[in-house]
Amino acid sequence: MSFDKHIVCIGAGYVGGPSMAVFALKCPTYKITVVDINQDRINAWNSNQLPIFEPGLDDVVLQTRGKNLFFDTDIPLAIKEADIIFVSVNTPTKTFGKGKGKAADLQYVEKVARSILENADRDKIVVEKSTLPVRTAEAIKGILYSNNEKNIRFQVVSNPEFLAEGTAVDDMLDPDRVLIGSEQTEEGLKACQEIISIYEHWVPRDKIITTNLWSSELTKLVANAFLAQRVSSINSISALCEKTGANVSEVAYAIGRDRRIGPKFLRASVGFGGSCFKKDILNLVYIAESYGLPEVAQYWESVVAMNAYQEERFVDRMVSFMFNTVAGKRIAVFGFAFKVNTGDTREAPAIHVCKRLLSEHAQVVVTDPKALDNARLDLKDCEGDLTFAEDPYEAARDAHAIAIITGWDEYKKLDYQKIFDSMAKPAFLVDGCQLLDADQLYDLGFNIISTGRDHKMHA
Ligand code: UDX
Ligand code: ADP
Hints:
- By secondary structure, the protein is α/β, with parallel strands linked by helices.
- The protein folds into two domains: 5-203, NAD(P)-binding Rossmann-like Domain (Rossmann fold); 249-459, Rossmann fold (3-Layer(aba) Sandwich), CATH 3.40.50.
- 42% of the residues lie in helices and 14% in strands.
- It has a six-stranded parallel beta sheet, sandwiched between helices. A six-stranded parallel beta sheet has the order 11-10-9-12-13-14, with helices on both faces.
- Helix 4 packs across helix 5 (107-119) and helix 9 runs parallel beside helix 12.
- The radius of gyration is 24 Å and the shape is elongated.
- The N and C termini lie far apart (74 Å).
- Residues 161-165, 224, 227, 231, 265-267, 269, 272-274, 276-277, 338-339 line the site of uridine-5'-diphosphate-xylopyranose.
């Protein structure tokens, strides 16, 4: 079959995979090829066991794979064939050199840009899809325009991804908005129109926002910074609630009823995790610092500092109510993923909590419905008494405390009488996300330490 257009995506990760699967579903006359240097990942995309878990993704991939969606490792060939190249390789925070700990490490993006330049033999549109610091397009352009012997014209466009893990497919199918940034030149606007026409297959035109390149790049960072700031704001209030007898869920609900504030992203937790929030804010901080705006940098840095405080506080409060020691006590950690409906554990608060508990010499047993493999990897260098259990009942057996870090729905449906009976006494329930009904569990006999509200202890 001949296709109208060939779209290639470099990077078959959390961003590239689901985005391209939905492109393939909604644009049946386009050929979509997703390439990656990681052969195992590509093999997994071509198997029945996809490398990432996303509700609805298996179905979309099954409908499109082998028809107009392909996964491959032949990057040079894909680049040659492509009309439009999406770049969605990883952009971790730098762990070395200038900007260490804050700036984004652009080595992977740069390698891709060089590879595009080397292999392209006709004009291409290159789209930044990964979260990238502002002015990365400039760097990509710098490389793409550096060798003009072939007389190829590249247009660099920014089309940041706003999909959240766990709802990636739905977010792609029904986005709040699509953002496309391009150079404000005739060719730039033409390239922008090409990207618009992909999304127009299913997204109403008034939801597609176009801006200049820099606005688009900055918007991605700012959107994540604002979301994270809401979580840190409510988490800061959770600390105050615990001291004063107010209940953070009630406060959040009541403020959220103000339409100017809105109800979303006001759930107190053990802290925000995920691959984006911390990285993007630190990036924003770095950019502000580099432009000589220390007050702006400090303001945003405090959002990350509040998050670290929340993780720390969770363990401190638990230890203090458990008679100031958890040494030798079995603690069942319920939930390790950075949020529900994903197996992803990047920057998960549970990593820090488990490490702290192990440093307090607790016996830690981790259970999670989707993230146990990643949990094993994240904690592989930890010393101490650490085990993993598929079954939450088994994790809780003989435990002195259950610590709920990720509020999986299945934890609401467990038989807590059975769990209580199997635990060491006094049995503590430390609920980091107000998942369970504290009053009901208190009546069963648990001592309750719930984030954002007063503790409830049996005498
Ligand atoms: C985020 C953005 O939402 C998405 O638009 C962007 O493209 C990538 O980063 P994601 O990291 O998948 O998505 O997760 P998100 O749902 O935003 O949650 C981030 C973290 O905040 C999670 O750890 C979550 O548990 C936490 N959170 C969220 C809270 O603690 N309280 C809330 O009220 C909401
Ligand atoms: P994200 O959450 O941004 O999608 P991931 O780490 O899940 O990040 O995915 C990024 C993918 O990019 C990985 O599968 C990685 O192997 C791939 N990748 C990194 N560098 C290159 C490269 N030079 N060429 C092709 N793929 C790459």
